[in-house]
Amino acid sequence: MKVLLELFVMLVLANGAPVVAARLFRRKWAAPIDGGRLWSDGRRMLGKSKTWRGLVAGALSCALFSWAVGLGFVFGLLFGALGLLGDLLSSFSKRRMGLDSSARAVGLDQVPECLLPMVLAVFWGLASWGGTLAIVALFTAANILFSPLLYQLGIRRHPH
């Protein structure tokens, strides 16, 4: 049970550290991952909010936390990177569907960024498939419930 809580915290870190880094560093190191490129549909591949700074901040925060709790730096780095890869896949999918980066897409906004790193945790021997499903459900519900509060507190730029 303790390790599932640690994995949940790492998911929050992977998604929260890029937001904190953006507030701390403003425009510094804010190069978009897609380099401003357009896909064949004429839309941005990912969007300007998906930056290298955010990718590094999210993966590194997970790695440091994972190391601190005894799960290992490499595991944490991979876990965080996979969480952010899931977020990039969501962003890419939303652009293809014609949705703005701030548009709400329940499930698509939460599941890939949670499921990909949790699959790693299963294969690393840290979680079961049942624990993974529970964490995905908890992360999705927490994201939906707490995003409006974080928006009201000025932490998020959008209420979802």
UniProtKB/TrEMBL annotation:
Q: What's the protein name?
A: CDP-archaeol synthase
Among InterPro entries, the record links this protein to: CarS (IPR032690)
Query: Which keywords belong to this entry?
Result: Membrane, Transmembrane, Transmembrane helix
Q: Which residues cross the membrane?
A: 55-85, 133-151
Source domain of life is Bacteria
Q: Which residues form the signal peptide?
A: none
